[in-house]
Every structure is written in structure tokens, then in C-alpha cells.
Amino acid sequence: MLFYNYSGDNEKIIKPIRVILAEDHPVTAKLISNTIENAGNFRIVGIANNGRDLINMALNRDFDIGIFDINMPFIDGMSALQRIINNKIGSKIIIYSGHIESWIIRKCLFEGASAYVSKFSDYSELIRALIAVANGETFLDKEAKSAIELNDDVHEHQDNKYLSFA
User: What are 7-34's pLDDT values in tens digits?
Assistant: First the structure.
């Protein structure tokens, strides 16, 4: 289902996008929530400050997209992602994290995340991710792309028998 249609300079929202947010820092959660709700026809329908509450909220509330931090009390965002994806098939999840290690990004995508946005990015990247994911696309911000590309470059060179790292 198309939630958000972007074509050149004309943006048209087809229906409101319901978002749940998992962030354990109250000020950050409020800033993200305000940013999302002021960006268009997005509605925050729930905020969890730990992984246990996130899982309960996600499994018992209707939402279109979830935005999860990785580091949270009780149950981390990665474990919550796995449980939610396994129990609520078709869930669309954006990971919003300060971790920019390529293995973490890859693991999140492998476990079913639709997007990865670094907390080092501008909030506009989070909005771009919401729009992309709502339209069925996968999204990586430039920090996540750089981390994966850098890691790929290192592995490519390590596989080269003529290159030494001694």
C-alpha cells in the first residue's frame, strides 16, 4: 500500500503514517516525536522507553512503521526487532542508532529492518527514511552507507593476495 508519494516537487500523502518510537532518552524521544509530527502527515501512536515496553506496544497496537534505538533497558532494540518481525509479519522498522559499525547495520537489515539511520545524521534523514520505508523501499543514510562501503573495501583488500597489512 502506498502511504507517501513523492514525485519531484510535489509531495502528496495518501494516508497518515502511524509511527511507534522506541527511545530511552526522554528529551531525544520528544525531539524525534516533534520532528516527525511536524514533517507531514505522520502520527506518533506510541513511545516506549525500553525494549520490553516496545515489544508489548508493537504487538498490541496498529502501526505502519517503527523507529527503534538499539541501546535500551531490559531488552535491546536488536532483540526487540527480531521478536516483533517474527510475531508481526510485514512490520516495517527503521533502526535509529548511534552505532555505525557495518556488522551491526548488516545484522539489523538481515533481521528484517527496512532502514538504518545514524543518530549522527540530520533529522531530515529520518524523515527521508520514513518516506522511503512507507513506499516499500530500503533506506540507508550516508553514515550507514559509508560504514558498509568502507567495510567492503577492507574485505576486498584483505582478499587480495598481493596486498599486505603487515
Answer: 445 555 467 889 999 999 999 999 999 9
**Position 21 in a domain:** yes
Instruction: Read off the pTM.
Output: 0.80
The whole-angstrom separation of Cα 164 and Cα 143 is 28
As a whole number of Å, the end-to-end CA separation of the chain is 53
Domain membership of residue 91 (yes or no) is yes
> How large is the average pLDDT for residues 62-67?
92
Domain range for 37 is 4-158
